[in-house]
User: Fold this.
Amino acid sequence: MRNGLALATLARLRAVALIAAVPLALAAAAVERAAAEEPSAYVVEVSDVTAKVGEPAVMQATLKVRDGYRILTAYNNRVIALSSFDDGVTFERRMVPAALREDNGALEFSVPLRATKPGRHPINGIFRVGYIQGTDEMAMVSLRLIANVTGTE
Assistant:
């Protein structure tokens, strides 16, 4: 009899724990979604490139800081992991550092490359940049670089 009572009590406790866990899980998922939808500190502007096959070209990318944020100038702001989807583009450097534009508070990237095949070639990379928000929050973030290089004859 005592064993049955203990098992019934344990079953009730498990049920209460499960009922309490479901709203907590839903709240955690909502917070995670809200954080994922939070706007980035930077606005990314990348230009597509058209170049003759085999000739050097430069892709320009600009990251403009949003209101309320500042560029973390002490950080090694850069673009890395440059690659071409179909090997139609080669990159002269594996990492390209940012140049700080004092006049508009933007980071500029000049990425040297060459088209190796005619046609449109998707490329990508990762911006690794830092920012300051307010007076005490610093963060280093990764942003996607996505563009196209069109090789011409």
Q: What stands out?
A: Helices lie at 2-37. The CA atoms of residues 22 and 35 lie 20 Å apart. Residues 33-37 have pLDDT under 50 and may be disordered.
